[in-house]
Amino acid sequence: MRQVVRYNLFFLFLLYCGRFFSQEINTIHLEKKRNERDYYPQIEGYFLGEIPILKLGSLDGLTTKVGWKIISFEMDYAAGRDYKNQRIFSNVIPDSIIIEITQSAMNEQIFFTKIMAKDELNVLHLLNSMTLIPIKKEDE
Predict the structure, then answer these.
(1) Which of 18, 50, 64, 79 is the most interior residue, by most CB within 10 Å?
(2) How far apart are alpha carbons 66 and 75 in whole angstroms?
(3) pTM of the entire predicted model
(4) 87: number of CA atoms within 13 Å, CB side?
(5) Phi, psi of 111 (to 5 degrees)
(6) CB-count burial class (<10 Å; 0-12, 13-18, 19+) for 89
């Protein structure tokens, strides 16, 4: 009887150790393939078409999905009867331009050109141009 108990205890011990040592830890490494749109400049996810004026003035400014830092860009927009061209050395549109657009360029195309960005190695890149149309509010 003692021997049966020992064998049972030994069998349980082996079963426990077998479970513990038989578990494998698998690491899965997924690498995302970048597509062309990851490199497009955007403002709050908008890179073409209509954009709510409040999002146009976002504090995040122009960004890319790959995390490149936008350092400058040019804007062409309607200002009354004229078109203005502004070179901005930042990734954020200044409040004065947002106010001017709100007063005279709603529903008019704004062209973002010569968009320069730095990657993680500080290499400069010229990004695709954008065309956005500011609107009063988002369609729901």
Answers:
(1) 64
(2) 22
(3) 0.71
(4) 2
(5) -105, 125
(6) exposed
